Amino acid sequence: MGELGSPGSTRSAGGWVRNENTGPVYGSVVQAGTIGQVHLTPSRPVVPRQLPAAPEPFTGREPDLAALSEILIGHAEHSVAVIHGTGGIGKTWLALHWAYRHLDLFPDGQLFVDLHGFSPSAKAMDARTALRALLEGLGVTPTGIPTDHAAQLGLYRSLVAGRRMLIVLDNAMGRR
Ligand SMILES: Nc1ncnc2c1ncn2[C@@H]1O[C@H](COP(=O)(O)OP(=O)(O)OP(=O)(O)O)[C@@H](O)[C@H]1O
Ligand SMILES: [Mg+2]
Fold it and tell me: Do 77 and 114 reside in the same domain of the chain?
């Protein structure tokens, strides 16, 4: 409740009511002026499931799968594995097969972005566009994405903090 007649307040049958929102709000806001008290419980975070279908029939690659596990499981809070090699050698299938084998390690979701680094038909995705794609994958609506890049990064970090997620960036041209 705010001051009588202060900015943002409305008059209802029960008197002056002022609504305030703190923190980010995504989606609709319901104004319930005359109800009295409204308790809003935080909505559950989106659990993205963006991986393309599991590749079948997958054969071999056991040393490579073991190498990915060595890098990605159990060492640090954040781990990065890079799979590189010439076109068609099996990079995407390896990444997806490993991901599906270990889905249980990432209960908070899996994000997948095709950066089109080598696509003859699509323009390579720049880092800023990829960040927007990741935010949308995390449930942020296009209108909820901040315009400022630093704010976008901050929102992304906030949304993935403390969550066990797998993020697959396919067809990256380089490290940046
Ligand atoms: N382990 C595997 N078992 C069976 N087939 C495979 C395996 N890995 C790859 N393939 C076959 O090779 C094809 C190319 O694999 P994939 O798309 O993973 O290559 P890539 O290295 O990601 O290629 P690009 O560089 O063009 O993205 C697959 O469509 C599949 O037919
Ligand atoms: Mg590929």
Answer: yes
